[in-house]
Amino acid sequence: MGLIRNIAIVSLTISFITFVAFFGRLPALRNTPIGALNRVLWVHTPRGLQAVDARLTNGRTSALVVRLANHLWNDRHPIVMIFFILLLSVSEIMIVPQAWPELSTSYKAISTVLIILPYVFLYASAASDPGYISPENHSQHLSLYPYDFTIYHPGQPCRTCRLLKPARSKHCSICKRCISKMDHHCIFINNCVGYQNQHWFLLLLFATATVISYAVFIGSTFLSTMVKSNIPRWNILGKGFTWSEHVYILGWALQERTRMGAVTLLCALTAPLVWGLLGYHTYLVWAGTTTNESMKWSDWQAEMCDGFVFKRSLPKDRRKDPRNEPEWTSWPVESEQVVLRTDDGLPPAENFGMGEWVRVWKLTNIENLYDLGFKDNLKDVFWRRPRES
Predict the structure, then answer these.
(1) Which of 75, 215, 364, 376 is 20 to 30 Å apart from 11, CA to CA?
(2) Signal peptide: which range, if any (predicted)?
């Protein structure tokens, strides 16, 4: 029981820390205990360690750790992706040889497909162009989306690439390139998630979550069958057994087949994390936004709560300045509003748009130009649209 307990504790701890580290900054969690733990992990703990190191080594250790951290977080490297591949492959090596002889032909076929797919989608996500913007394809990426005059305004150049930023694009400090429809830089694929590979990333999440859940199903089925051969009245739900008896029998089964039990337990503890990540990105598609844009919308909400955000209408026959924005985009709608924030809480002095400036208090009072409904949002992810040549 000690080995199983230790595996469970380690797996739960790693899963929880990973969840806090990667999701604690999300707008929905920013003001929750998860957000507070994220700040403890990334802000307060490093500051405390630096203060201790300043007394012990005069800051030399901290400087070394900072340089290493900057390399790990701000430069492209395959370390985390290699770890992800090793975690998948080693787990499969531990469980497949034991389970394979006892699998039926149909289950062998299903297992083969499910094992292969994560590697296929990982390669596609990592090796594909996420939507790099260059002088040669700049006009094509400009024609993908119109500016919404809320979080994206025309005429704003990238200070690094020295190109006008297309709507929904962002400069990645790790890839050192501007990315079309930038979602985020993912260290697990050593690449950005953008317009041209977002579909591969979603398929990677789905394939990984599915194969992990399938491993739980196979492992628990085989372990339960083994227990049933010794205890005929056994069932996986533990009906007819006390809680202590149920845990003891499960622990015995996991120890009898240690490798299969360890992988099954690891997958059972990590599957909710992967499904949660897939659910979050599915929600972003449903909402017609990206991880990058969700951060921007969160900032807008904070400004609205202070009463510093205003909107007014845009004329439908507005003439575009071709020096700052494309005359044509493949997106089916154009913005009908301009939204601005001020520093003093007074209506903007800009004369752009028409009508009176109206103070905005809620995000629901602002249209999201890029939300066409879940079906059409999915099409935008999985089907490329024609671009201006």
Answers:
(1) 75
(2) none
**Helix and strand numbers, DSSP H then E, in the chain:** 12, 8
Residue type for 369, please?
A: L
305 is catalytic: no
| pLDDT at 211 exceeding the cut of 80 | yes
Q: Is the pLDDT of residue 236 over 80?
A: no
- Give domain status of residue 359, yes or no: yes
The domain boundary residue, chosen from 75, 97, 113 = 75
Q: Which domain covers residue 342, as residue numbers?
A: 291-382
Residue 128 belongs to some domain of the structure:
no
pLDDT digits (tens, 9 = 90+) for 11-49: 677 778 877 877 777 766 777 888 888 888 888 888 888
Put simply, whether the predicted model's pTM sits higher than 0.90 gets the answer no
29, part of any domain = yes
Percent of the chain with pLDDT over 70: 95
Question: What are the residues whose beta carbons fall under 8 Å from the beta carbon of 39, sequence distance 6 or more?
Answer: 24
Whether 304 is covered by a domain: the verdict is: yes
Among residues 208, 214, 201, 211, which one has the least CA distance to residue 282? 201
d(CA 116, CA 119): 6
- Report the candidate in 191, 143, 189 with the shortest Cα–Cα distance to residue 168: 143
Token couple for 212: 């992990």
Is residue 188 within 8 Å of 175, Cβ to Cβ? no
Q: Which residues of 96-117 are buried (b: 16+ CB within 10 A; e: fewer)?
A: beebeeeeeeeeeeebeebbeb
Catalytic residue among 186, 192, 267, 305: 186
Each residue's pLDDT tens digit, 293-317 = 998 998 898 899 889 999 999 998 8
* Residue that finishes a domain, picked among 37, 53, 75: 75
- The number of domains in the chain is 2
Measured distance CA(183)–CA(33) in Å, rounded: 25
Nearest to 178 by CA among 168, 190, 186, 187: 168
